[in-house]
Amino acid sequence: MQSEPALLELEGNLVFVGDTHGDFTVTKEITRLFFRDKTQKLIFLGDYIDRAPEDIGTSIPNICYLLFLKCCYPKNIFLLQGNHEATYAIPCHPYQFKDEIESLYPGLHERFLKIFAQMPLMVLANNVFAAHGGIPKKYRLEELRHLQKSDLYALEAVTWSDPETSKNYRGAGYPFSSRDVEEFLGEVKAKIFLKSHDYNTLGFTIFNGKCLTIFSSRRYRENGNKGILIARANGNIEDLNGLVVEELKGSQWKKYNIQRL
Q1: Is residue 2, in this structure, part of any structural domain at all?
Q2: Which of 21, 95, 170, 180 is in Cβ range 3.0-4.6 Å of 176 for a Cys bridge?
Q3: What is the pTM of this model?
């Protein structure tokens, strides 16, 4: 990941994954899709640690498995930073991962922080701009292409921000409006913004159908759209209807109708 830019520009058959938050069970179900068809690229939108479901109890297996997959398939597995990974620069509370890892492997947490700092921030692919939380609205496309991952404004904007309609108050991030989204998508030549981060807007097609929020953890399956979602973008899409959103029911992936949102 050290060699990857802050803004990844990809193409092909893409699968976008929302927050997994230590849900190793769901992560394995998602990666089964990849092993059925290794031409796909899996793009995880951040927040791999903390808040693990009770039946798992720790987020260590989830993040270790994802990093293992990244080592094995570096051109097909992409791990973006979420605000829980960006804690090396912006504190995140509650943050259980440090205690989890230090209780078993003293000193290893600092190694993880160095890895988190190398994760990309954004993806531009198939007319989709994707990031964990928000948009770095003050930067133009060429500036994003040369952005340093350590850029504090971009890091905070991308990993911590919510739409201005959100009920969250996080003490960090830059709320974005409908006009901000429209202008930013025009600048980066994308049609939609795909994000995770804010379960209060889980699944809502906000801003005139330009933005979709997905979550991929069992911990949040009863919030918002009441589902565990992924989104596929096979080739260039023109609007949200071009995304194929799927919901995990049991061990089966079923098409999810975003028109009901």
Answers
A1: no
A2: 180
A3: 0.95
